[in-house]
Structure formats: structure tokens, C-alpha cells
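Let us practice reading a record.
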Amino acid sequence: MKNKNLYLRAAILTLILILSMIIAIGFGSIEIEINVVVNEISALLQGRSLESSNSMIIFDIRVPRILFAAIAGAILSLTGMLMQTVSQNYLADPYILGVSSGAGMGAVFCIVTGIAQIFAPYGVYVGAFLGAALATIIVVHIAGTSNSPIKLVLIGMGISALFSAFTMLEIYGSKNEAQVRSAMFWLMGSFTGIQWTMVPIALTVLILLMLFIWLFRHELDLILLGREEAQHLGLSTERIQQMVVVVSSMAIAVIVSIAGIIGFIGLVIPHIARFIGESRHSVMLWFTSLIGAFVMVWADVMSRSMFRPEEVPIGILTACLGAPIFMQIINRKYKDS
């Protein structure tokens, strides 16, 4: 009966997500009525030609953006869940290892030095990915074979502070106001300019991440019992920690390199998923990804609709929405403390 209830909840969440993505197509600087959206989708499924201005807006601009937003929300939420597991700290988020700061340093360097324009349109993406990879390599090298979650978190905090300082130094040293504005907008996160070519990349990362969690679901569940208990049961916690760090960091590197830094999703969503589902990773895998995708889709809707035709950086919105929810979750969890 319990499994049936979980399947039902997952099915309901999936249906809600699909409906949300269809409805979200109509929102933006130019509103499109839902019946027009449905008609355009029906025409596409029937193989009819699509030549209207609405078709271009829907299928060339909004659909890839919405798909990427859903995938990014799922990836951020799942990596947040993994970080909370290996660090045994429910305050951990996907950026705890300094990956986002490394990506930010790489991206801003490309922007303020003009490399982004020389290698457009991929200069910023490559720079951000290389910066994130550098941060990951440093964390893995310093952490070594240690299985201490506290050491891992502290190393991440140090790397994050170091790369953040370099990023601010790069911005301070720039004399071009347009470059500074571009760098700051990127650091706050945005889905502006998402194209179809970016969707398969993100989808591949999501599939590989979900496959990793599914294959190691039992080992991750054992870590929840405590590292000493897991080791007594024969689990190599050092190996699992290193694998999680590398996989999570690379997944985050891809998302941050494309969309910038989007906070609070990976911190809050796992808590909501535990409340709706349960703490087993085989269950958390699906609930975390579905809820993360749903929240990100609607955060993106608000980003492009609140002050249209201007867009609000999505990182600002996720922080404004996520911080109060997170404080409420913590208040309920520790209300008797």
C-alpha cells in the first residue's frame, strides 16, 4: 500500500510538471493564450507546417528554454541531495564544494578580457566549465582519501572564498561598464538565450546523474546511517565520497557554465522531497527531480513575466522564494530545540 501511494504521488507530480511546462509556454514578454499554444503543439504533432510568429516564439525560444529550466532544476536538486548525503549535513547545497565560484571566476575572466567575444558564442561556457573543473580538481586533491565530511565542507568553503575573491578582483579591474554588467547578470543566473543545442547536453547530464544515483542507491542509504555504521557494514565511504564529489561537480559545472549561478534550489528541494516522499534514495531520486523541475519552470516564468519585457535574473527569484521556505522548514524541524 505504501509503494502504491508513492507511485500515485510520483504520477501526480509528473502530470503537474507536464501541464506546468505547457502552461509556461504562454508567459513571457509577449503573452500567448493557452488555446494558441495547444493548437500549435497539435499542429506540430500532426506534421503540419508552422510558419506563424507564434510558432517561432513557442518552438524556437520558449520550449527549449522551458525544457532546459526543468532539466536544470532536476540536476541542481539531485546534486543538492547528494551533497547533503555525503556531508551528512542538511544545510549543504550543490555549490558547497566551490564549483560555482570556480565557474564564476572562469566565466567572468572570459567576459572582462574579451575572450568571450573572440570565441562567441561558446567562450563564456568553456571558461565557466574550465573554472568549475579546476575547483573540482583542487577539492579532490586536497581532500584526498579522507572520509571526513567536515573536512570536505571546510575545503569547499575555502575554495569558494578564494575563487569568489578572484572573481570580484576581475570585476573590479574591468574598466568596461558593459562587461561588468554582463558579468554580474551572469553571476545572478539566467536562462536568456537558451537554444536547442543546449538541451541534449543538459539532458545527457541528467540521465547520467540519475543513473549514478540509482546504481549506488543502497550505498547512499547506508551513509545515512552514519559513516562508522556504513564502514562496519563493509562500505568504502572514501570511494563513495570521491565518486559523489566528482559526479556532482561535473553535473553542476555544466549547468552553471550555461545558466550561471542559481541558488537555493538544491538546498530546499531535497527537504520538500523528503516531506512528500521518504529518505530512501530510490524514492528521493524521482521526487527530488520532479519537484526541482516544477519549481524551476515556474521560477523561470516569474523571471520573464514580472517586469516584462525586462527579465529578472532567476538567481534573485530563487533566493527570494527559497530563503523563506528554507527558514520555515528549519523552524518546523527544530521547533522543540
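A brief commentary: The longest helix spans residues 53-86.
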